[in-house]
Amino acid sequence: MEIRCEACKEVGPAAEVRAGAEGMELVCASCGHANLLKVGSAAEPLAEDAQSRDGDASSAPGPIARAAAERASTTASAPRTSASAAPGASLAEGVVEAAMARLIPVPGAGPRCPKCAHLVDGADHCERCGLSLAEAHRYEPGQAPWEAAPAGKDDAFLRLNAAWARAEDGDAQAMQRFARLAVEEGLVEAGIRRVRFYLVEHPDDARALEALRRLATALQARVTIAASQAAASAESFGKDVRRLRGLLMTITLALCSLILLLLSAVFWDKC
Q1: Is residue 201 included in any domain, yes or no?
Q2: Radius of gyration for the alpha carbons in the chain, expressed in angstroms and rounded
Q3: What does pTM read for this prediction?
Q4: How far apart are CA 258 and CA 255, in angstroms?
Q5: How far apart are CA 73 and CA 97, in angstroms?
Q6: Tally of CB atoms within 10 A around 167
Q7: Where are the extended beta strands (E) located within the chain?
Q8: Where is the segment annotated Disordered (predicted)?
Q9: pLDDT tens-digit profile of 172-219?
């Protein structure tokens, strides 16, 4: 993933993605300048919970709302460690919370999408991921494309499956090791899928929610860098277009001048 540094104009991969006072910052690997990437306000997404995001609204508070209430009650009297870092940290946390609200499956009974665990009662397609349920049912268990290892990651996928088996067995640390392995091996989507199905049966499992938070953070960081790369590519393309346009104008003026000189020479010869 590449960015274009606004200080040194160097194009290259970001050395670090971090929360700043005004938003997410992408640190230039060349000069160390922190390039601000605005991610928008997180206040509105925080008001929504997974119940209102993934299906019919429910009057019961969901896991995100319950976790937020618990954090608020336990940290209300805690002193702030850094006033300057608080706004950026709050924004970064808000972005992750919004991502969490989109990822936690809506609770309830009924058939689920085999790909993303969303409720699909009576539907032909999953409204969350668009999967055709008729097509999905043609695959044998474990043979669907979304259950296969990504290209070139067969060994990592096997390790991820083994880590998930230990996590499902109730190992206290296995869930976090599973999330860490998914992030390190670039298998975030596969990790999220497994945790989502697990949360359908265990919606209040703190270990699973924390693992999903880690995966959501990794996914959001990747989206942030991709957005920055797209912006840098668009800026670079615009500069290339302006440079080419200037070159074409120069060539056109030069040709016009040459034609004018030739016509002038012919005119003076006849005189």
Answers
A1: yes
A2: 27
A3: 0.51
A4: 5
A5: 17
A6: 23
A7: 2-4, 11-19, 24-28, 34-37
A8: 47-88
A9: 788 888 888 888 888 888 888 888 888 888 888 888 888 888 888 877
Domain that holds residue 168: 149-240
Measured distance CA(107)–CA(218) in Å, rounded: 24
Q: What span, in angstroms and rounded, lies between the C-alpha atoms of 222 and 201?
A: 29
In a domain, 33, yes or no: no
Residue pLDDT, tens place only, 56-103: 444 445 554 554 454 444 434 433 333 333 333 444 566 667 777 777
Residue type, 39: V
Residue 188 tokens, joined: 């975030």
C-alpha separations of 52 from 36, 65, 104, 123, 206 in Å: 31, 12, 11, 18, 21
Helix (H) or strand (E) holding 31: none
Q: Which residues of 45-56 are buried (b: 16+ CB within 10 A; e: fewer)?
A: bbebbbbebbbe
Where does residue 73 rank: exposed (0-12), middle (13-18), buried (19+ CB within 10 A)?
A: exposed
Angle between helix 188-201 and 154-168 (nearest 10): 20
Q: Would you state the structure tokens that stand for residue 217, as one six-digit string?
A: 């953070």
CA atoms of 34 and 28, how far apart (whole Å):
6
* Token couple for 271: 């005189």
Enter the tokens of residue 23.
């938003």
The total of structural domains in the chain comes to 2
Q: For residue 141, report the phi and psi dihedrals to the nearest 5 degrees.
A: -55, 130
